[in-house]
Amino acid sequence: MAPTAYTIFTLRAIRPSVRQKLEEDRRSIGSSREADSAGHILPPNRIASALRGLRWKDVENIRTLCDMPQFKEYRNLHIIEQLKSRSVFFDKGLTDNEIENIQKRFEIQFPPDLLEFLSTALPISNGFINWRNSSIENINVIKDKLKLPLEGILFDIEHNSFWFEGWGSKPNNLLESLEICKEKMNQAPQLIPIYFHRFIPQNPFERNNPIFSVHQTDIIYYGENLFNYLEIEFGIKGYKDIDFESIKTIPFWTDIVG
Known about the structure:
By secondary structure, the chain is an alpha+beta fold. The chain folds into two domains: 1-85, no CATH class; 140-256, no CATH class. The chain is built from twelve helices and eight strands. The strands form three sheets. A four-stranded antiparallel beta sheet has the order 5-6-7-8. It has a two-stranded antiparallel sheet with strand order 1-2. Strands 3-4 form a two-stranded antiparallel sheet. Helix 3 (45-51) crosses helix 6 (69-84) and helix 9 (136-159) packs across helix 10. The longest helix is centred in the middle third of the chain and has 24 residues, at 136-159. The chain is globular and about 55 Å long.
């Protein structure tokens, strides 16, 4: 991508001293983390302080900058700091081995921004999915969560006369209707639970997939992307701040949003 005048202006606006300070902070992240009395990892406050001097919306629109590992790391640390201030507790981030085992166990694939967030720190407050807990009970809880969107739609087909027009004409036979739903849903992107009944699609496998609030067929958007959603969920921003026109189209789920 050839640099535009806007790109050059933004690059120049970030003074060398600031870039140097951010790079020093990035390198020190691993050694400067502290833990609270409950053993939850606390990202360094000075990382969030460094972020306040940057226009993140501008930076993230520049591919050559937003693809730099340190900026992804700062973005995650910044939202973690914000969530901590809303009493969300965190454990250390998931390791590469843990992520590989989790994705194999549940036959899912975390989209890149969710993977990076969970690798930085794992939210363990009530309502969040504790991906690290490998007890049989918790594994079953997560499996049930993964099935929830399909089961909710099946329930509404059986009990509330729901039918999605994109599936064609609704059969008169209930069992046939349910089988068509299951077949069609196998083709839709898998939804991965984040917090209570908020989900992110795993496909397309890229950043900035929208967040859906799913309760049977009462389905609405709850964020343009993971970070926007977390700000809205925990009162940092309001629902009215969602830029619905910028939301990415997700097969099936976009069409069913109420």
